[in-house]
Amino acid sequence: MLKLLLRFQHMDRRWIFLGMGLSILLPLVFPINFGFKVDERVQALYDSVEALEPGDTVLISADFDPASRPELEPFYRANLEHLFRQDVNVVMVSLWEFAPPLVVPILDEVAARHGKVYGKDYVFLGYKPGKELAIKAIGENIPKTFPTDSKGTPTEELPIMKGFKQAKDFPLLINVSAGFPGTREYVLQIQGQYNLKIASACTAVSAPDYIPFYKAGQLTGLAGGMPGSAQYEKLVYPDGPPDGVRLLASQAINVLNLGHLYIIGLIVLGNIAFFLTRRLED
Amino acid sequence: MEPSVLSSLDIAGAWVSIALTLGIFSFLYADNPVYKLAEHLFLGISIGISMTEMYYGVVRPNLIDKLAAGNVLSVVPLVMCAMLFARLASKKLGWLARIPIAFIVAAYAGVKLTGEANGNLMTQVAQSMPNLAELWRDHGIWDWSADGAGVFSGIFLVVGLSACLLHFYFSARQGPTMRGISRFGVLVLMLSFGASFGYTVMGRISLAIGRAQELLGLDKPAEEAAQIHPQLASVVCGVLVIAFLVVWRLRGGGAEQEEAA
After folding, report:
1. Domain residues for A50?
2. How many domains does chain A contain in total?
3. CB neighbour list of residue B168: distance below 8 Å, 6 or more residues apart
4. Which positions 212-241 of A are in contact with B (Cβ < 8 Å)?
5. What is the complex's ipTM, to 2 decimals?
6. In a domain, A35, yes or no
7. CATH code, domain with A86
8. Which uninterrupted H or E stretch holds A61?
């Protein structure tokens, strides 16, 4: 046994990678279901969208890129579905240069499924560089920050933008955030100043930094990482997805559980091996 | 809804995406030319997209269009931009770059400072002193249904925060009391780092799951997957990458890495 543990400590790290790969691939090929519950922060986010009235307009800042797609795209899709289902209009902007090719086709796809009209029910105002300065500008004057939408139509001529000049004119700002600039910057730059209602979906890496914002009431809801997206999918589709809709985060959450069990197993085994063999080596 | 018919280019793009994913994964075996190819393609394309977006998002609307419309004030950012590159023209003129850099630093510092003071410092400090009476009324000592909210958590927050701050207070003599508080502060910090690390691990596994979903074609609608055949693409590209690695190793590739390890 001790020999085995000694060998384990000096094992080629590529075996660990192989094990990780298998623990991800196998449950995707042969699905299992552990089940999961919705936490308070995601429920609060869902409730803040549910509280919107038909005809309301929300501002979405879609700030993610292909690298964070597995964590945030499921939330983004489910959130659009949720908003359009309630007849809420969507004004979308982005502060990440890699976001537009990723987020616009999904916006068009979900809007088309609900028969929404571009410019009247939803609009994409485009990408704005400038990071925190762009966020400050969104807080102050949106038509000045985005003089035209992504198709070149002057923003002030868009029917959906009538009466919406500043971020505070929207009853809710939803930030799908993969990092900087994102939720933290929105909270620091304009949330307090204009007393905005901001809900955020963020990557798992950012979640511990944003939880204090939620606890302090600076965020009305928070969906962190893939579990947050899966929980939101569960709330939006309580009876399962309709035809043609894929719930990628719900599918992945069980795989994530197995991945975690694999890593916990390695940590426990590694520590047992370390303490037993240290005594032997001494 | 009509099932979408993909063009040959879309299908080829999906195959290239799968091949590049496997190329990047080949780094887990060893640093190799397939990985390098995928890495360089990724970097080149990222920079290309960034430059294009910067041109159409910043330079054209904020400078070229405004200059074309006769906005004379737009000359100011143009001149400041040119000053940034003055050092390239002559080392003697290098000092000119300091003026726009000073402007950027000052403007950014101003923006950051007000944001941090308003959104982070004031609100977070205020929230670190919880209302215990309210917590008792809403959650009691400990509420399992609200992630452990309650009086115990409120007191732990205040005590833990104070211990962490005292751990970094170096002007007091390190007697037994201060050492005890400091150790408790370290414990709280370790709990916080552990939680952050756990979230980071979860994020990384999530990304790996995302790639696996693409390799298996689970992230695409069924009609698209039927046209792309992602599982076939994964097997074909996987075999090609492994075959390349075998030939590469047989020809002595990676020997230096093995020696260094």
Report:
1. 40-246
2. 2
3. none
4. 212, 215-218, 224-227
5. 0.91
6. no
7. 3.40.50.10160
8. strand A57-63
